[in-house]
Write a structure and sequence with these properties.
Helices cover about 15% and strands about 25% of the residues. The protein is of the alpha/beta class and about 325 residues long. The protein has 2 domains: about 160 residues, Spo0b-associated Gtp-binding Protein, Chain: A; about 170 residues, Rossmann fold (3-Layer(aba) Sandwich), CATH 3.40.50.300. It has a 6-stranded mixed sheet, sandwiched between helices. A hairpin with a 4-residue loop joins strand 10 and strand 11. About 5% of the residues have low confidence.
Amino acid sequence: MFFDETKVFLKAGNGGDGCMSFLRQKYMPKGGPNGGNGGKGGDLILQADENVSDLRNYHFKKHWKAKNGEPGRGSDQNGRGGDPCVLKVPMGTEVREMHSGDLICELLVHDQEILLLEGGKGGRGNATFKSSINQTPRQFTEGKIGMEGEYKFTLKTIADIGLVGFPNAGKSTLLNVMSNATPKIDSYPFTTLVPTVGVIDYPDEFKTLTMADVPGLIEGAAENRGLGHRFLRHVERCQLLLFLLDLAATDGRNPCDDFEHLRNELIEYDPSLGQKPFLVAGNKIDEESTDQYVREFNQRFPGIEIIPISAVLEENISLLRKKLIEELN
């Protein structure tokens, strides 16, 4: 299972209480105050980690708490501060307040840290209240309560290229051919149920590009039909969209109509996705009757170039690789 959304309850540590104590030694029956301060509660910190792939750690364990500060002791001993609780999340994680829905932060870069909840301050021991007019203070303060809250973690995949298409268009096959990724490949729709990110290597340019294979969309995805919103959010952060059309019309759909539907679904979900640069590739040119769909596409969308490819036979893959890096440069 791939977990890209979860709800959690988080709490920072409480501060330790201050201590009320007086020095009592031989020949010093009435020593001064020596109660120490309480330790500060541990903070709750979020850290982005490129080695964490999803939010499964927080799906099965919903409550996370930092350590409390220790109370102060006599002999002017201050309590130890509580250990922080560091939660490692995948890059691209969005954190929202559970009830209001307000965006708190986003973690986009490896090792980025966010102080989400601050631990409570430690209480004051009675030694800190000593003065010339109060030489035997008996007052002390309790530690402050640490911050807490309920939050919603949402993962949005970070990649240079978002691979978008209907089920059975050959997206996983294309990703497998072009990159080091090994997604599950089969001949039935919705083989891919989770986003897969592959790295496309350009050794001559000394560059690499990342491509995300988003699970197949269906009509009405923008209205959250199927798993629409869960899939569409993974293309929000992509710099370039690659629409992959099935020129063989395997499921009886016209690939030109598919392109219109895909564009409309993205724009209805988020109008800014309609402004992103994109390329169009037509897959399965090794099948019969693909030429007629290429001609129809050129007639219906004269300003848009379609790149005919065959992912299985690796035809025109080098041309597609070249177009991708040119568009991103």
